[in-house]
């Protein structure tokens, strides 16, 4: 039962994991309750889920973990303790400021890029012992068109180079249940300075957009159409090129508030 629950939760669509967990609890009862927090933690870290805290968004990821359910949030200057089941921050305390000049410069460059490209996304830059890690996390809910989506980008900066990945997930649920995932890998690219790191990331993301758009179009024109019809109940077409080409940010990157 535990393995089945883990499989279902790890496959939960963007923004819908809490509903999946609720259904599993109703079906399995107390038999499964004790392992759900750990499975939810695994899901949240893998998908770099962002939790709301006051007027901020804090990214939950393996790179940020500093203790039992505790995570550093460098941009917000906090260490937060979270409840992985409810997606709530239960405690917060100040994080000591990092004065590593190279890290500070990289973080500034990344946050400027994010403000332009992902204005509503949660973004974090971590200064780890042997590398620096950049995480971009964003969700999109469009109830009237029956879909949810997420975007998570993770980049590793080490030894004068940057590498990483862009993962987009979209879920359609009008009269069917289709979930698609697009995963693009950024090969190790020389980038000895923070400015060059950001420039390399921009180039990678720009060249990846067309692939993301093609994949989403295939889901709409083939998989989803086979289940029901091209138009949702609202009779509004889903504009896949726009979703893909708005720098992935304004569609998959704008969070519904």
UniProtKB/TrEMBL annotation:
<protein>
    <recommendedName>
        <fullName>F-actin-capping protein subunit alpha</fullName>
    </recommendedName>
</protein>
<dbReference type="Pfam" id="PF01267">
    <property type="entry name" value="F-actin_cap_A"/>
</dbReference>
<dbReference type="InterPro" id="IPR002189">
    <property type="entry name" value="CapZ_alpha"/>
</dbReference>
<keyword id="KW-0009">Actin-binding</keyword>
<dbReference type="GO" id="GO:0051016">
    <property type="term" value="P:barbed-end actin filament capping"/>
</dbReference>
<dbReference type="InterPro" id="IPR042276">
    <property type="entry name" value="CapZ_alpha/beta_2"/>
</dbReference>
<keyword id="KW-0117">Actin capping</keyword>
<comment type="similarity">
    <text>Belongs to the F-actin-capping protein alpha subunit family.</text>
</comment>
<dbReference type="GO" id="GO:0008290">
    <property type="term" value="C:F-actin capping protein complex"/>
</dbReference>
<dbReference type="GO" id="GO:0051015">
    <property type="term" value="F:actin filament binding"/>
</dbReference>
<dbReference type="GO" id="GO:0030863">
    <property type="term" value="C:cortical cytoskeleton"/>
</dbReference>
<dbReference type="InterPro" id="IPR017865">
    <property type="entry name" value="F-actin_cap_asu_CS"/>
</dbReference>
<dbReference type="InterPro" id="IPR042489">
    <property type="entry name" value="CapZ_alpha_1"/>
</dbReference>
<dbReference type="InterPro" id="IPR037282">
    <property type="entry name" value="CapZ_alpha/beta"/>
</dbReference>
<comment type="function">
    <text>F-actin-capping proteins bind in a Ca(2+)-independent manner to the fast growing ends of actin filaments (barbed end) thereby blocking the exchange of subunits at these ends. Unlike other capping proteins (such as gelsolin and severin), these proteins do not sever actin filaments.</text>
</comment>
<comment type="subunit">
    <text>Heterodimer of an alpha and a beta subunit.</text>
</comment>
<dbReference type="GO" id="GO:0030036">
    <property type="term" value="P:actin cytoskeleton organization"/>
</dbReference>
